[in-house]
Amino acid sequence: MLGAIEAGGTKFVLAVGPSPERITARHTIPTRDPETTLAEAAEWLAGQGGITALGIGSFGPVELGRTSPRWGFITTTPKPGWADCDIAGYFGGVLGVPVGFDTDVNAAALAEHAASGSAGGSLAYLTVGTGIGGGLVLDGQPVHGIAHPEVGHIYPRRHPEDRDFPGTCPSHGDCLEGLASGPAIMARWGMSLSHLPADHPGHAIIAECIAQACHVLFASVAVEDVVVGGGVANTPGLVERVAQRARELDAGYLPGTARHRVIRPRLGSEAGITGAMMLADGAAKA
Amino acid sequence: MLGAIEAGGTKFVLAVGPSPERITARHTIPTRDPETTLAEAAEWLAGQGGITALGIGSFGPVELGRTSPRWGFITTTPKPGWADCDIAGYFGGVLGVPVGFDTDVNAAALAEHAASGSAGGSLAYLTVGTGIGGGLVLDGQPVHGIAHPEVGHIYPRRHPEDRDFPGTCPSHGDCLEGLASGPAIMARWGMSLSHLPADHPGHAIIAECIAQACHVLFASVAVEDVVVGGGVANTPGLVERVAQRARELDAGYLPGTARHRVIRPRLGSEAGITGAMMLADGAAKA
């Protein structure tokens, strides 16, 4: 039996099942302080009986370096209490099973890649919600580099009608997250994107920001698909606008252009927990 | 004996040697039409005697898909006569040896990665010259995605003093290549960057463009090093300016930030041909 945790800043989604494609029980708990949250998650997982490996897709930043003594830690997060939290070590110790560990968005990218049916393909998963993050799978493997991708913090070129907003990112001001995350949209217009009138320029402004990120991913690593998930991405028509604008930005130039797709998650909101199940499966086989 | 070709739009550099680190003979020929150029290159290589494998790092776009019938082709280049040129197939046929093939910038990235001594590390090689291109090595392997990286065609955020220049890229206007390549600099100011006075705003404008690309590579794939080569990068002080500006853009945020470096090529102008020798070595062992 595989166990899985999608560890988010607001909630932890827990699941068990015999294979990544088959979740037989699930449970969601609110994210509070680490002690309370981790203990409650471990109790539920232990109560399912017979877990042989666990996968965790976690909010970050996290340490993924296999040779680091801090592998499996949430590291420098501003979330109160959670900095330097040894989340993988905790569950490995309490449950006594091998643990697969990656970022929440790399887990989602793994699951979306598997769902695409493209064995050797390349895919990015972009989540646009409370924050903006990106996961990346190249040739079937999640990308870590020397840490992990943080594509939410690139600086998109500003839309011509969007010159003045200073952005909300405490580190970067008007990076992608500072311009187009849920809180940035709220700070700009006092409501969510899906509540703005259909003819409001905000729709084109946010689509431009996200399309710039898609173009960066197509141009810099030649992914086939950019999957756009997260709460903001549920705004009707947004992903279609982004896809159209990304095509315009490329202008048919890039060598992979005919195969580029900007799409909604094939797995919907199941991508993250399914990816965590895949991490468990990998740990079981390691 | 390994043979290698660095196939550029202006010249072909040819080399042979017993290992990638040891080039024992080299020859440079001007790039003319494919028939003349390829025949002259093949004649010189055949004359060196006993080549057992060939590596080619080529200008692009190229086809790298191993299952494609057009693997080893230069594909849609606007360079007269060179579109749909089966460059790997030509040399494999004439010389009767296995051929390793990649982009010129992936070859350079491979060689710079080897020179860095970081076995599992991640590195990008950016060339800023007649065009702007990028190669990428992650976990020791060159990145292809579904085609190959073309990071010269992202849209950098414009410098505040650089709002008006429309750019020179026929496809994108003011993409990175359209703003900061050698021909773009010439079109802007009528001279090369190294001929502009030291207090000319052009230095900051070009550094800003290239630093945006470095930040994109740090944020999207978490490379450790961005190596900046090419003719424009030889401008005194430019790479140092780019490194400084990239640090400012990151603001200490990214999880790998302490290890990020923007540097000049460790191998100087030898990166491309050394990488092509490495491709030959890989083909010999395949």
Automatic annotation (TrEMBL), chains A, B:
Swiss-Prot/TrEMBL keywords: ATP-binding, Carbohydrate metabolism, Kinase, Magnesium, Metal-binding, Nucleotide-binding, Transferase, Zinc
CDD domains: ASKHA_NBD_ROK_BsFRK-like (cd24067)
InterPro entries: ATPase_NBD, Carb_Metab_Reg_Kinase/Isom, ROK, ROK_cs
Cofactor: Mg(2+)
Catalytic activity line of the entry: D-fructose + ATP = D-fructose 6-phosphate + ADP + H(+)
UniProt-recorded Gene Ontology molecular function terms: ATP binding; fructokinase activity; metal ion binding
Keyword Transferase assigned: yes
Annotated signal peptide: none
Classification via Gene3D superfamilies: 3.30.420.40
UniProt EC number: 2.7.1.4
PANTHER family: FRUCTOKINASE (PTHR42742:SF3), TRANSCRIPTIONAL REPRESSOR MPRA (PTHR42742)
Family: Belongs to the ROK (NagC/XylR) family.
Name assigned to this protein: fructokinase
Organism: Erythrobacter ramosus
